[in-house]
Design brief:
Layout: H1 3-11, H2 14-34, E1 38-47, H3 49-54, H4 72-78, H5 81-91, E2 95-100, E3 106-108, E4 114-118, E5 128-134, E6 138-143, E7 149-153, E8 166-170, H6 172-176, E9 185-190, H7 193-203, E10 204-208, E11 215-222, H8 225-282, H9 288-325, H10 341-356, H11 358-363, H12 369-415, H13 417-453, E12 459-473, H14 476-501, H15 508-514, E13 520-525, H16 542-557, E14 567-573, H17 580-593, E15 598-602, H18 611-614, H19 623-628, E16 648-651, H20 660-665, H21 667-677, E17 682-686, E18 705-711, H22 717-728, E19 735-742, H23 744-747
Parallel strand pairs: 13-19, 14-17, 14-18, 15-16, 15-17, 18-19
Antiparallel strand pairs: 1-11, 1-12, 2-3, 2-9, 4-8, 5-6, 5-9, 6-7, 10-11
Helix pairs in contact: 2-14, 5-7, 5-8, 8-13, 9-12, 10-12, 16-17
Length: 779
């Protein structure tokens, strides 16, 4: 990259850079001077969450406690509209007072010698500004928006004035010497409460210190450090009050809750005790342990009784069978171990009867009446014994059934003991839990009462509100540097965008990117109308030197002469306005001044331009008249008398014909050229643009050299694409490109550093720099 060239691309616009710097740096300087400085006031407070937890009546203990230093609730409180509304009301932020120091800048003051008493609700105050002057008769109040003036008579007036949302009176300090304030002017800004809260919220910043737990940083940005400090102090005071009030509210709610819970638990405890009492009564339980022992002993006793009863049944059956099998005179056994005294006594009586009757039984005969009577008695007594024993056996069987029933009942009661114990255990657990909770609630209530007696805030002010008097807005150094950079970047960006979107030709590189193999013949500088004709043989003007360089470069393209004939040089362009007639004219003049016989022909029959350089009427007869009439000699239409050179003859285009293409293509024009070659050294053809009409392409083959004219900062790059196509198709032969209208000063750096060996000053009128870029119309 050629940095010098890139620099010069932008350097040519230096006046705009300078103007931009002056505008923006000047605007920044004025802005800094007229804008009140804004300062930041900050304060730091500590909220001890651990102290707050220690004073809590009810705490939640978890393995992983939530962030105990989370201050989101406090921050949300301080930035809430309700909280800031209290600050606005306490500090009367609906009114802002200024003392006029300059006409554009005011000095905010905290105290003024007058007092404003709103006549409407502060919520309904208008957003307005007023200028207040204290005069001998009273006050003069001016609405700065409507410029309406209100005169208030007296210094202690209670008069309500239509159009003013307040009454005004002198303060106690102002009443001492009102004349002291006659020269002072004050400005009052009034705003409704909602807007004051909004502005306060925008100016306030509340953040936490990540490094220090529990620390809140407060900052307020404003033009009055005193007011900012008052705002932060009031916020800290209100926050402290809110913390205490919140603790009092928590205390009251906690005590109320505890009282309600104690009452409920007392009822629940009594209810459980009643349930236990009824359960013990219904199950005939005095003490559960004694009840278990009693029921276990009862079951054992029932089992023992049943066992003894079964043993007696077995003994009774044995005795009954043994007695039935015994003989009539055989004594019965008495070792049956029957638990029946009557049976045992009857056995003894029976055996005693046999023993008493033994002699009769042994001596008497069976038919002996005494023997028969005794045997009858023995049979009767034995039968009575059997009946009694059978009755005893029946009694034992009945007892066995009863014992089994009682044993089943005892077994059932014994089996139900675990269930009863479980139910009773649950009742006892519930009762115990209720009792423990009841006692804990009583203890918590006592703690709450004690904590309420010593309730205090856990907020501490670490750093009182302090103002950093290094203004944060506007910062002069940053503003000036920013304005300087912006003053450079804005025109740079505009120029860059202009160059980026620019499709015009500006240098040889632009041409070579489209047509690489076509030589550049030279550069024709842009000159004013008065200077364009200064191309005499002895002229040292820029146009003269450029034309001589063009002639020299064209000579390298001319083919070698085989015959002693003149050369044909064709000047054309893509579109109208690129200066081909201008270049053809100067080329012809330059050649003629070199003692060459030159014929300049205007072949642009549609829009001829050459007549302007010779002050000839456009309707002057010329080429078109010759082409339309073969019998006329073309030499009759030549203009030989001109002030530029005696070697220059001109054949103008003539009257504009209705059919220029047909005239150009007839044989008359080619015959003219062939004849002119024998007379002139050079024939210069000023033709029509090739992109607009095809006239030039019809005779372009006659040219020895084709000079394709493009105009600096005028010709579009797309026009060269068509020219390149014509060159490739050989519709234009032996082509060289001439760049016309180059602004030599601004074009330097684009490849146009033209230096012809001498430093020539163009004799032209000095113009302001802002008019130098304005193109002067060229013919």
């Amino acid at each position: 990259m050629d940095f010098k060239k890139e620099f010069l691309k932008y350097y040519q616009y230096w006046p705009w850079f300078l103007l931009s710097l002056i505008v923006f740096v000047g605007a920044a300087f004025i802005f800094i001077k007229i804008t009140p400085s804004t300062y930041e006031t900050s304060a730091t407070v500590l909220i001890d969450k651990k102290q707050e937890d220690q004073t809590k009546v009810i705490t939640i203990n978890t393995a992983e406690k939530n962030n105990e230093d989370n201050l989101e609730d406090e921050i949300r409180l301080m930035t809430s509209n309700e909280f800031l509304l209290d600050v606005v009301k306490k500090l009367n932020l609906n009114f802002s007072f200024f003392e006029k120091v300059y006409t554009v800048q005011n000095n905010r003051v905290k105290e003024v010698p007058f007092a404003l008493i709103p006549t409407v609700s502060k919520d309904s105050l208008p957003e307005a500004s007023y200028e207040i002057k204290i005069i001998k008769e009273g006050f003069v109040v001016t609405d700065l928006e409507t410029e309406e003036v209100f005169n208030v008579k007296g210094y202690a007036s209670n008069e309500v004035i239509d159009g003013l949302p307040f009454k005004i009176q002198l303060s106690a300090k102002g009443k001492k010497d009102p004349a002291k304030y006659f020269e002072s002017e004050y400005k009052v800004s009034v705003e409704p409460t909602a807007l004051a809260v909004k502005n306060l919220k925008l100016a306030l910043s509340v953040t936490t210190d990540e490094k220090a737990k529990g620390v809140i940083e407060l900052s307020h940005v404003g033009s009055s450090p005193v007011r900012s400090r008052d705002i932060l102090s009031e916020i800290i005071v209100l926050l402290d009050q809110h913390i205490v009030l919140n603790k009092q509210k928590v205390f009251k709610n906690t005590v109320s809750y505890l009282n309600q819970r104690i009452k409920n638990f007392s009822k629940e405890k009594d209810s459980i005790e009643s349930i236990k009492e009824k359960y013990l009564q219904n199950n005939e339980i005095a003490v559960m342990d004694n009840y278990v022992v009693e029921k276990t002993a009862d079951r054992s006793h029932k089992i023992e009784n049943s066992s003894l009863n079964e043993k007696q049944i077995s003994l009774a059956n044995f005795a009954l069978n043994d007695i039935r099998q015994a003989g009539p005179t055989q004594t019965l056994g008495t070792g049956y171990n029957l638990d029946s005294p009557s049976v045992n006594q009857m056995l003894i009586n029976y055996n005693a009867k046999i023993l008493d009757s033994q002699m009769i039984l042994e001596r008497a005969q069976p038919n002996n009446p005494a023997y028969i009577s005794l045997m009858t008695q023995l049979r009767v007594q034995k039968q009575e014994l059997l009946n009694t024993l059978q009755g005893y056996l029946n009694f034992l069987n009945q007892n066995s059934k009863a014992n089994r029933a009682e044993q089943n009942i005892a077994d059932a009661k014994l089996k139900s003991i675990p269930t009863q114990d479980k139910v009773l255990g649950n009742i006892n657990s519930s009762l115990s839990l209720k009792e423990e909770t009841y006692v804990a609630l009583l203890q918590k209530r006592e703690e709450a009462v004690l904590n309420g007696a010593i309730l205090e805030s856990n907020l501490k002010t670490l750093n009182a509100p302090e103002t950093n008097y290094s203004a944060i807005f506007p910062q002069p150094k940053a503003f000036m540097i920013g304005a300087f950079l912006f003053g450079l970047l804005l025109p740079f960006g505009i120029v860059y965008l202009r160059l980026f979107l620019d499709t015009k030709l500006h240098n040889e590189e632009d041409i070579q990117k489209v047509i690489a193999d076509v030589p550049i013949l030279g550069h024709i500088p842009k000159i004013s109308r008065n200077e364009r004709l200064n191309n005499t043989a002895t002229s040292r003007s820029m146009i003269a030197e450029a034309s001589r360089a063009l002639v020299s470069n064209i000579s390298y393209l001319l083919p070698k002469r085989i015959e002693n004939k003149g050369n044909v040089i064709l000047f054309t362009s893509s579109i109208q306005g690129e200066g081909k007639s201008f270049c053809a004219f100067h080329n012809a003049v330059t050649l003629s001044n070199l003692n060459k016989k030159v014929l300049l022909i205007g072949i642009d029959l549609r829009n001829p331009q050459l007549h302007d350089y010779f002050n000839i009427d456009r309707k002057e007869a010329g080429l078109s008249n010759f082409l339309a009439n073969k019998s006329v000699d073309w030499k009759e239409f030549l203009q030989k008398d001109n002030s530029y050179s005696k070697n220059l003859d001109v054949l103008f285009a003539g009257e504009t014909p209705p059919n220029p293409s047909q005239l150009i293509t007839n044989s008359n024009f080619e015959a003219l050229i062939e004849e002119a070659k024998l007379v002139y050294d050079f024939i210069i053809l000023d033709t029509a643009p090739v992109q607009i009409v095809s006239d030039t392409l019809n005779f372009s083959y006659l040219a020895d050299v084709t000079v394709f004219v493009v105009k600096y900062d005028f010709t579009d790059k797309s026009n060269l694409v068509q020219a390149s196509s014509l060159i490739k198709k050989q519709q234009l032969k032996n082509v060289g490109i001439l760049i016309n209208g180059v602004v030599m000063k601004t074009a330097y750096g684009y490849g146009y550093g033209v230096n012809y060996g001498y430093q020539y000053k163009e004799a032209k009128e000095k113009k302001p720099w802002y008019k130098r870029g304005v193109a002067i119309k060229e013919a």
